[in-house]
Write a structure and sequence with these properties.
Helix content is 79%, strand content 0%. With 167 residues, the chain is mainly α. Helix 2 packs antiparallel against helix 3 and helix 2 runs antiparallel to helix 5. It is built from five helices and no strands.
Length: 167
């Protein structure tokens, strides 16, 4: 007599259960290994994105610094012109603007604070000249010396190989 096996009896008998268990364990291991590989790729991509974001931030910071320095350079030239023309109100305004720009650079290097203080004093001097509290511009050579120091310090930041530390 022929033994008739049903599909359920063949697939679900005891010897096949061990094969299924081992196969399931192997699939679980392969899935776990795949998960670890994907996790490493994700971490690597996240690190690359963070590095790129940091580099972009530094580039933007440096570009903004260059803009501020170029604007301060322009203000120095305009202030010198206004002082030479004895346009005290315009000189005072421009020196006030220049002081604001230089104050922004203090975060790069504390020595900018000295120049900012000197520029503020010159701005006050021009305001006093405008209101006739003073009759003449004091110590023109001292004014030109401050301008020369300021321009030299600005040039250090504006050059093609300037660093972000302010000189």
């Amino acid at each position: 007599a022929a033994i008739k096996w049903t599909w359920g009896e063949v697939v679900l008998n005891e010897s096949w259960r061990d094969v299924y268990t081992i196969a399931g364990l192997m699939l679980t291991f392969v899935g776990f290994a795949f998960t670890l590989v994907q996790l490493r790729k994700t971490q690597s991509a996240a690190k690359a994105a963070e590095t790129a974001a940091q580099r972009t931030l530094e580039e933007n910071r440096f570009a903004f610094q260059k803009f501020m320095v170029a604007l301060a350079h322009r203000y120095v030239h305009e202030a010198k012109i206004h002082v030479d023309n004895e346009a005290w109100e315009k000189a005072a305004i421009r020196l006030s603007d220049l002081t604001d720009q230089v104050n922004q650079l203090i975060s790069l290097d504390g020595s900018w604070a000295i120049l900012a203080g000197e520029l503020h004093t010159w701005s006050l001097t021009c305001n006093r000249l405008k209101s006739n509290e003073l009759k003449r511009f004091p110590k023109k050579e001292k004014w030109l010396e401050v301008c020369a120091r300021l321009e030299a310090k600005l040039n250090q930041l504006l050059g093609p190989f300037a660093d972000a530390k302010g000189g």
